[in-house]
């Protein structure tokens, strides 16, 4: 079954589909996003899959960002403890001064995930150029002999290994 963009909702209400007010806001936004990209027909599960992907990706990025933030907080606490020990001041023990999640932590988490989760592909023009360069060199001609075609004898493990010094 395929869905259509939200602009055809009044027609679909007669078919028993829910009204636009009953549709969650995120699903309506995804319908608008798909329609803005020129995608007007798709299966009903597509918005759900996109929302699931977005939720899993966001959860993973936030977990990574919290780990980076905790790591930086531990390093800052160690630095503060070292500085306070050198000056004789008492270290701050309360959690109110602990670092919170920052934009830099989220950016670092996104950059780290992008490195291993999404593989960038080379542009098609570059691949076509590389293929044309590779195909300029012709393959060697196939010999017209029958039987198993082996490489030259010096590259085969079946070559005789003579040792003249051992015969004397």
Automatic annotation (TrEMBL):
GO CC terms, sorted: SAGA complex; transcription factor TFIID complex
List GO molecular-function terms, semicolon-separated.
Answer: protein heterodimerization activity; RNA polymerase II general transcription initiation factor activity; transcription coactivator activity
Q: Where is this region: Disordered?
A: 1-24
**Keyword check for Nucleus:** yes
Indicate the principal place this protein occupies in or around the cell: nucleus
What the entry lists under Pfam families is as follows:
TFIID-31kDa (PF02291)
Bias category Low complexity: which stretches? 1-20
UniProt KW Transcription regulation keyword:
yes
InterPro entries named among the record's database cross-references: Histone-fold (IPR009072), TFIID-31 (IPR003162), TFIID_subunit_9 (IPR051431)
Keywords recorded for this protein, A-Z? Nucleus, Transcription, Transcription regulation
- Compartment annotation: Nucleus
Q: Which Gene Ontology BP terms does the record give?
A: RNA polymerase II preinitiation complex assembly
According to its UniProt record, which protein family does this protein belong to? Belongs to the TAF9 family.
Instruction: Give the protein's recorded name.
Output: Chromatin modification protein
Q: Which organism is it from?
A: Maudiozyma humilis (Sour dough yeast)
């Amino acid at each position: 079954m395929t869905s259509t963009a939200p602009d055809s909702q009044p027609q679909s209400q007669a078919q028993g589909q829910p009204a636009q007010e009953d549709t969650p806001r995120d699903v309506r936004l995804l319908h608008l996003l798909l329609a803005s990209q020129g995608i007007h027909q798709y299966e009903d599960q597509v918005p759900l899959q996109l929302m699931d992907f977005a939720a899993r990706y966001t959860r993973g990025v936030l977990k990574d960002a919290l780990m980076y933030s905790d790591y930086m907080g531990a390093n800052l606490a160690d630095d503060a403890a070292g500085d306070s020990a050198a000056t004789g001041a008492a270290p701050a023990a309360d959690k109110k001064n602990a670092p919170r999640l920052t934009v830099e932590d989220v950016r670092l988490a996104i950059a780290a995930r992008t490195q291993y989760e999404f593989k960038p592909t080379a542009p098609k023009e570059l691949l076509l150029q590389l293929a044309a360069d590779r195909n300029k060199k012709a393959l060697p001609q196939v010999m017209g002999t029958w039987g198993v075609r082996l490489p030259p004898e010096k590259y085969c493990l079946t070559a005789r290994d003579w040792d003249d010094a051992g015969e004397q």
